[in-house]
Amino acid sequence: MSFLNMGEATIAISSWMVCSIGMMLFNKFAIKAFPVECTLVALQMGVTVLAMALFCFRSIKIGSFYDVLRWTMVVPFFTGMLLSSILALKFAPMSLVVVFRTLSPMASLLIERFYPDPLRLSAPMLGAIATMVGGAALYTSAMHKSGLGGIGWVFLNIFFAVGDRLLQRLMLAKDQSPVDISKTGITLLNNLEGMVPLVVVMGIKNEFAEIPEAVASLSAAGIVWVVLSCLVGVGISYTGIWAQSMISATSFLVLVNANKFVIIFIEAFCLRTKSLAPIQVVGAIVTILGGVLYGKARESIEAEAQAKMAERQPLVAKKDNCKV
């Protein structure tokens, strides 16, 4: 990677980390002040679409209708990830959400078992998985049952997040099968198309009837949280795609897990909205460290697999030359 590319990757990753932390915090307060989750996510998407259309229209590039159709496969996972994240934050503490999200690489690994050429499992990878599971068990062992109310939404969020990351990596990475769509174009498509299933869900759960009361009960502070969540939503929609296109999916998962240290620290020691027992703090740290170790172990296996593929290339070329 060149110096310029390293600089761009650093800016992309730093921007995403700031937006990620802000999104988690602002969503936590916004959903309490405005408890109509589909409408809140739709507002965030609408603001992002407006921002792309007003300020980034010159950089929006969509190669073909086929590229749009391919990217549409990502949209349900993107929308599901946002909505299930809001619902998880609505019913569970942030620390529970971030601890169990650390287990997402396990789901990713399970799906990859069905790939034609799945990645080889190594002892360090299995050890890291055991560390993550053990840490999560430590964290939940000291939790009151009332705090586990949103755990179903957390697991659903993991499912959507893994699907989103795997599909985005497939369609953004230069060494895979990338679509001919600019980052701003992808951001626009994610949010514009994502509002369609949201409106359907709003109709099914009759959320339209709840909106007037939710708006009427909004305080000044609540309006601030909703506005901030919308603004940060614009940032994370773009920076997530930007960072994902610069680094591997595994490295991105490592960053996601490392970012969780900051969120747990803020909730437990700055906001004090959640009191964590010492064993829960230990469990959270062990789980997140396990996630980071898993990412590093996986990167090592991926590098080994790429090296083997590179070794085979010259051999093939030599055989072809002999035939000629």
TrEMBL record:
Keywords: Membrane, Transmembrane, Transmembrane helix. The chain crosses the membrane at residues 6-26, 38-60, 80-100, 121-142, 148-167, 188-204, 216-238, 250-269, 275-294. It is a multi-pass membrane protein. InterPro entries: TPT_transporter. It is found in: Membrane. It comes from the Eukaryota. This is Sugar phosphate transporter domain-containing protein. It comes from Prorocentrum cordatum. The lineage of its organism: Eukaryota, Sar, Alveolata, Dinophyceae, Prorocentrales.
